[in-house]
Amino acid sequence: MNTPAQPSAEPHVVWHNQAVTAEARAALNGHRGCVVWFTGLSGSGKSTVANVVDQLLHARGVHTYLLDGDNVRHGLSATPQLLEPQYGAEFAQRFGLGFGAADRAENIRRIGAVAELFADAGLVTLTAFVSPYRADRDAVRAMLPAGAFIEVFVDTPLEVCETRDPKGLYKKARAGEIKNFTGISDPYEAPTSPELHLAGGTKSPEELAAEVVGYLKSIAIG
Amino acid sequence: MNTPAQPSAEPHVVWHNQAVTAEARAALNGHRGCVVWFTGLSGSGKSTVANVVDQLLHARGVHTYLLDGDNVRHGLSATPQLLEPQYGAEFAQRFGLGFGAADRAENIRRIGAVAELFADAGLVTLTAFVSPYRADRDAVRAMLPAGAFIEVFVDTPLEVCETRDPKGLYKKARAGEIKNFTGISDPYEAPTSPELHLAGGTKSPEELAAEVVGYLKSIAIG
Asked: B70 CB contacts (<8 Å, ≥6 apart)?
């Protein structure tokens, strides 16, 4: 690091820093950036719905990006196990993320910081993470400009999520093989006033995605 | 976390996950994503040149984003001091980043992971960080598809950087007030075969930026 913001004090160069602004990016894209934050239990359908929204928006020419476990857990929020071969044990233990409360908070903090950058870059940024703690979600909201954080609560009853159990995680959690599992051994703090509250147990992903796209249209995004 | 990739095993929903691909984003944008990684000493002109490149590309309708100390050090790579008020001392000490070797490696690792996501999102992603260690830069290169990492060595002699010293950092480093300062008390490992080698001490930011844009055009980006 140690990077100076701009060597504008350079004697022989008169260069005025005019960074490309968020407004200029919005003009190029035809819409402004924002964060559409899906939260809900494992198996609630967050990733599925976010993926359909991504496709619907992309088909309309909206510039989007989806952050989820698939593209975050191998890089940005890599586990200690993933980091150790290259960086050593001490580094891996310090910076690698497991599933304890502090690790989860840091995971959401990093994702929030990245989502903020993506929104600043002008993209409609979809995130699909359990993100069980209200304080962590509210911290992301606080980082963003007013109106740019759209919290989408995918409210699917635990029984339904547990019946789906696509990866057998609930079964393992019930058996005690996975600790700190949201809804079983760890709490889920539901949003108190999300921008959108989706009935994940009774409607199809397409119906739910249409609700999200409808909302985004109503606030002139997408 | 604990997010299943897709609840595709759901019995009552036949939903095939067709994520929006990097190719689809490239079609929408008119170009593919990549990482243009500026490296060089503090005061070498990295940020200035990257900023001019950003403006030139944006003016051509290219979708870009610039990652630098200004938008990374308050969020993604926040210092312990920034994290402590909200997250407490233990959390801040573990995850906050200072300027020691491990902290710098983790800083570049996080930035690399984020740049990879931005490139995947289809943006021409410019990064401007000293990034003094070869291994850290090479690790980012290894994460990206072949040809998507463009290393730009802003090769400005230390004497020139020290004369510029826009923030007085070299003066402080010489006085021992800043430790681990690249070029003074910490090594800078120059790239061995960067895609671009810029003569930062003798040409103007505009000339250097034109070289970068010319290179990007030659490989059909921008």
From this structure: A5
Distance CA B87, CA A108 (A): 12
Question: Cα(A175)–Cα(B121) distance, rounded to whole angstroms?
Answer: 39
Residues of B (76-95) whose Cβ lies below 8 Å from A: 76-78, 86-87, 90-91, 94-95
CB distance from A51 to chain B under 8 Å?
Answer: yes
Residue B200 touches partner A, C-beta closer than 8 Å: no
Flag whether residue B127 sits within 8 Å of chain A, measured between CB atoms. Answer: no
What number is the average pLDDT over the span B152-157? 98
Pairwise CA distance, residues A100 & A172, whole Å:
17
Between chain A and chain B, the number of residue pairs with CB atoms below 8 A apart is 223
Report CA-CA distances (Å) from B143 to B37, B68, B114: 13, 19, 11
CB contact under 8 A, B48 and A105: no
Q: How far is CA B149 from the centre of its chain?
A: 11
Is the pTM here over 0.80, yes or no? yes
Cα separation, A209 vs A211, whole angstroms: 5
Q: Is B13 on the interface with A (CB under 8 A)?
A: yes
Q: What is the pLDDT of residues A86-132, one digit of tens each?
A: 999 999 999 999 988 899 999 999 999 999 999 999 999 999 999 99
- Give dist(CA A144, CA A126) in Å, integer: 14
* Interface contact B121-A120, CB threshold 8 A: no
* Closest to B44 (Cα-Cα) out of A206, A2, A145: A2
CA B135, B139, B145, B150 torsion-angle sign: negative
Active-site residue set of A? 131
Residue B131 among the catalytic residues: yes
Give the model confidence (pLDDT) of B134-147 as tens digits. Answer: 999 999 999 999 99
Identity of the residue in B9, B18, B43 whose CB atom sits nearest the CB atom of A55: B18
- Taking CA B36 as the corner, what is the angle to CA A95 and CA B204, rounded to the nearest 5 degrees? 125
Bridge partners, A150 (sequence order): A36
Are B178 and A2 within 8 A, CB to CB? yes
Cβ B196 vs Cβ B33: under 8 Å: no
